[in-house]
C-alpha cells in the first residue's frame, strides 16, 4: 500500500481569519505553518493572530451584539440560520472530512464521523433556538413574576485540537442559538476546519460579526481573548492547567466560564457482563482518535473472576492494532504533534520502567512515513491504582487494567482519580446498574455502552478536576444564557 501524501503539496493554501463577516490576515501579517501529523510536512498556513487581532474581533462581536440584528432577531430565524449552516456543512462534508483528517492525522472515517456530529449539532441547536423559555413564578397577590433567558453578550470559545469540528459545533450552536455573538480561537495545531466553517457561516447568511474566528498561539491569542474586558463569558475545552489560566484571566473581569478539562474515565466490567458485546467497545473507547479524546475510557476495572479472560481478550485485540496515515484509515492515526507523541511515549516508558506489566502492544504500519508522529498502542495490566499511569490523563492509546473484588471496591476505584467526566458500567444486574450509576462521580454514565461522541442531545461535562458547567443538549443553552427575573406590580 502506498500512501500518496505528496499530492497534497499541490493544494497548499493560505487560510485567513474571519472578522466581521470578512476573511482577514493577521494585522501583523504573520502566519503559522500548518503541518500534517501523518508525515510532518507543511501544507498550509494560518494567521498568527495576537492581542490586536483579538481586540478587533471582540469589537466586531460587541458591535454585532449591541447594534446588530442578531440578539433581537426572532429565535426561530436564528435557528434557521444555524440549520442552514448545518446544511452547508453537509454539502461540503467530503471536503471538511478530508481537511480535518489531514490537519489532525485522524483516520478519514473519524473525519467523516466528526462531520456527521457537527451537522447534528447545527440541526439540534437550530431546532432548539425557539424552544427554550423562561417561567412564570407564583408570587405575592397583585404581582406577576416571570423569567427570561437572555444571552450573555460576547462569548469567547477556546477549543482544542482533538475534535475541532465537533467542539466548535457545540460551542457555536449553543452560543448563537441563545443570541450571543462569538469569537472562537481554535488550537494552532488544528484550525483549518474552524476557519472553513467560519467561511460557510458567511455563506449561510449569519450577520457580520456574529461568528468571528481568530487563529494563533494559545499564549498570545488565547490569553488575550480570555482576558479581554469586553468578553462576557468564556467557554473552554482543553487541559486543566490551561483551564486554570483561563479562569484566572476571566476572574480578573468577573466573568463566567464553562470548563471541560478532560478525564481519566473508568469502565467497570462485572463478572455477569456480556463480554463479547463489551470487548469492541472497550477497545474503541481508548483507540478512537488515537486516545486523544477527553472522554477516552482509559481505565478498565474488571471483576477478579473474569480478569484473566478479559485481559487476554483485550491483549489479542491490542496486538492487532495498527497506527498509520489518515488516508490509510487504519485503527488509529498519528498523534497531533511531536510534543504529544513524546508525552505518550514518556508515560509508557516510565510505567514500563516502574515494572507495570505490558500485556500487549500494537504496531505502526510499515508504510507509514517515518516523519509522522505515530505511537504504538499499549495495554498495561494489573496496574496499581496509585500509579501515575492510573491517575494522569495520557491522551494517547494507552489502556490500563485493574482487578476488583466487589461492587464497593469497583466504585471506590472508579472514583479514585481527580477527574470525573465519563464512566461505563457493564453488568446484566438491573439494580446494580442503577446503584453504581448513581455512586460514580462522572458527568455521563453509560450502562452496557460507551461513547460520549455523537449524542449531541445529551448533557456533557465534568465533576472534580474535569471541570464545571455543561455542554451539549439543552443544558448548554442554560450555560450560554443568564436568567433575568421581571416583577410586575398591578394591584
Ligand atoms: P491546551 O493548552 O489546554 O490547549 C487547548 C486550547 O487552549 C488551545 O486552543 C490552546 O491554543 C489554548 N491555550 C493554550 N494556552 C492558553 C492560554 N494561556 N490562554 C488561553 N488559551 C490558551 O492543551 P495542549 O497543550 O494542546 O495539550 C496538552 C494536554 O491537554 C494534552 O496532552 C491533553 O492531556 C490535554 N487536552 C485535553 C483536551 C480535552 O478535550 N479535554 C483537549 C486537548 C488537550 P494553542 O493550542 O494554539 O496553544
Ligand atoms: Mg495540523
CATH class of the largest domain: Alpha Beta
CATH superfamily of the largest domain: Aldehyde Dehydrogenase, Chain A, domain 1
Give the strand content: 15-25%
For the secondary structure, the number of strands is: 23
Radius of gyration, taken over Cα atoms and rounded to an integer in Å:
23 Å
Low-confidence stretches: 1-10
Q: Describe the global form.
A: globular
Q: Which ions, cofactors or small ligands are bound in this entry?
A: NADP nicotinamide-adenine-dinucleotide phosphate, magnesium ion
Can you tell me the CATH topology of the largest domain?
Aldehyde Dehydrogenase, Chain A, domain 1
Q: Quickly give the CATH architecture of the largest domain.
A: 3-Layer(aba) Sandwich
Helical segment tally?
Answer: 15
Strand order of the largest sheet: 16-18-19-14-13-20-21
Quickly give the structural class: alpha/beta
Quaternary form: single chain
Give the distance, in angstroms, between the N- and C-terminal Cα atoms: 82 Å
Domain tally: 2
Q: How does the major sheet shape up? A: 7 strands, mixed
Task: State mean pLDDT (0 to 100 scale).
Answer: 96
- Range of helix content: 25-40%
